[in-house]
Design goal:
By secondary structure, this protein is of the alpha+beta class. Helices cover 29% and strands 24% of the residues. The protein has helices at residues 8-26, 52-73, 78-92, 106-114, 117-123, 156-159, 241-246; strands spanning 136-140, 145-148, 165-171, 175-177, 182-187, 193-197, 203-210, 220-222, 229-230, 235-239, 250-257, 265-268, 273-274, 279-284.
Amino acid sequence: IHLRFKRIYPRMLLGCFSGGLVIAILGLATSGVTTNAFVFTSLLTIPVFKPMGVYAIAVLVAFAVAFLAIYFTDYRTPEEKEEILARIAAENADVSVPAGAAAPASAPAAAAEAAPAEAEAADDESDNTTSAAGVTMAVAAPVSGTVVPQKDIKDPAFAAGALGTGVGVTPTGNAVFSPVEGKIISVAKTGHAYGIKTDDGVEILVHIGIDTVKMEGEGFTPAVQKKNRVTVGQKLADVNFQAIADAGYDSTVIVTVVNSKSLENVTENASGTVQAGEPVLSVTM
């Protein structure tokens, strides 16, 4: 456990320190806690320590402090959390991330924020979307640039379709626009990802760059907020793509239909260069 989740160890030490402090204070009247047995700390070995009550309290404090520290600050790094979320998304989509390829951080983070659109919609009584069976709609390019087919996106989760059918665009401008008309259901705190739900129930994720969650918002200026209505071509964010490149990250802007599995068909229909607003995906409901 400690080798896998290294954030646990310092929090455990905080618990150990707290337990030792309790023994130091409560044990003043009895010259500390003693034992004649060679045992490790556990609930089963409490009876061999004297005074037993002081030792039991110290163990309880050590456990409680360590537990609360881990519970409230988490035991995983952001990358570990996002890798787990990517695998969950892959399982839910019934698509496996390629063997041996750990999903990079940015895509899972966005999936965690944007994929569960149904849950967010359920919390909003005014968001009553219906899907029109057999209707086809277009998803536009969120930026001008060169189209990157899904299989060539340099992120295993997106490339494998774990986050839905999508396409990437290598940008040439400094702004990202909405690819559909609908309601903003999520905006990443770092400004690098946006979830949009159309009135027909199609859930779109616009993800700016790969692993850009690690930039912690630097270079991203959101132009919309959660629950805003947007139209095709409306600005979602201003982005300093040069800052992304300077930080060593891929600047590909990815647009994906998160709920592809629940729709009749989602296909890529663009190649070469595109202008923002031109169709890149076709969705049949």
